[in-house]
Amino acid sequence: DARALPDFAGHEQIWLGRDRERGLTAIVAVHDTTLGPALGGTRVWPHGSFEAALTDALRLSHGMTLKAAVAGLALGGGKAVIVADPKTDKTPELLEAYAEMLAALDGQYITAEDVGLTLEDADFLRSRTPNVTGTTRGGSGNPSPVTAQGVFLGIKAALRHARGSEKLDGVRVAVQGLGAVGWSLAKRLRGEGAILTVTDIDPARANKAVEHLGATAVEGDAIITADVDVFAPCALGAVLSEETIPQLKAGIVAGSANNQLATADDAERLRQRGVLYAPDYVINSGGLINVAEELTPPGYDADAAMKRVAVIPKTLGAIFRRAAAEGRTTDAVAEAIAMERIEAARKRKSHA
Ligand code: NAD
Question: What are the catalytic residues (predicted)?
Answer without folding.
Answer: 79
